[in-house]
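Propose amino acids for all 65 sites.
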């Protein structure tokens, strides 16, 4: 299936989840926020399957000043 992941069209296997998309990005285990189709997805729901053409945005907290 195809999704838009952080602005780039990306292919994932059918049945892929938010966790799978994060793994593809190499996102860290903490300090991450995810939105699917404009809605924030709580960490407890990251096993939810993505749908074809979903728009997934992943934000990573950056420390510094």
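Proposal:
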């Amino acid at each position: 299936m195809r999704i838009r992941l952080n602005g780039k069209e990306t292919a994932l296997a059918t049945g892929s989840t938010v966790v799978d998309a994060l793994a593809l990005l190499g996102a860290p285990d903490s300090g991450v926020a995810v939105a699917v189709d404009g809605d924030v997805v709580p960490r407890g729901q990251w096993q939810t399957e993505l749908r074809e053409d979903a728009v997934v945005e992943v934000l990573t907290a950056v420390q510094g000043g």
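The chain has one domain: 2-60. The CA atoms of residues 17 and 48 lie 5 Å apart.
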